Amino acid sequence: MEARVSPDEPVRIERAASAAGESVSAFLVGAAVRLSGEVIAEATTTTVPADYFDELLAALDVAGPAPQLTEAAKRGNRTPRIAPRKLRVSKAEIP
């Protein structure tokens, strides 16, 4: 990986790396890895207020009637299943 930096940035990065007791390379990689974890967590996490979350869980606990689902399940039991095709191999194909 390569990066373009402005003229004053290398001095600042080198100073920070030295203060951390790391090489510039290790400092840059460590900073990038930490930031990437934060960015990924932010992009893949949804934060909601506690009361909203509690209401959501309560709504999921209550199972209402589902007549369409019940009917579909009944039809599924009446529908014959398609048997898998049997593999046919002629004796000429066997080495």
Helices and strands, with pairings:
Blueprint: H1 9-20, H2 24-44, H3 50-61, H4 67-78
Please give a structural write-up.
With 95 residues, the chain is mainly α. The chain has a domain of 62 residues. Helix content is 60%, strand content 0%. It has four helices and no strands. The longest helix is centred in the middle third of the chain and has 21 residues. The radius of gyration is 31 Å and the shape is flat. 0% of the residues are buried.
Brief synopsis:
The chain has helices at 9-20, 24-44, 50-61, 67-78.
Poorly predicted ranges: none
- Which structural class should the secondary elements be placed in? mainly alpha
Gyration radius over CA: 31 Å
Could you report the average pLDDT, rounded to the nearest whole number? 87
User: Major sheet, described briefly?
Assistant: none
Beta-strand percentage range: under 5%
What proportion of the residues is helical, as a percent range?
Answer: 55-70%
Number of strands: 0
Whole-Å distance between the termini? 53 Å
Tell me the quaternary state.
single chain
The shape is flat
Please tally the helical runs, counting DSSP H or I stretches of 4 or more residues.
Answer: 4
Helix/strand order, N-terminal first: HHHH
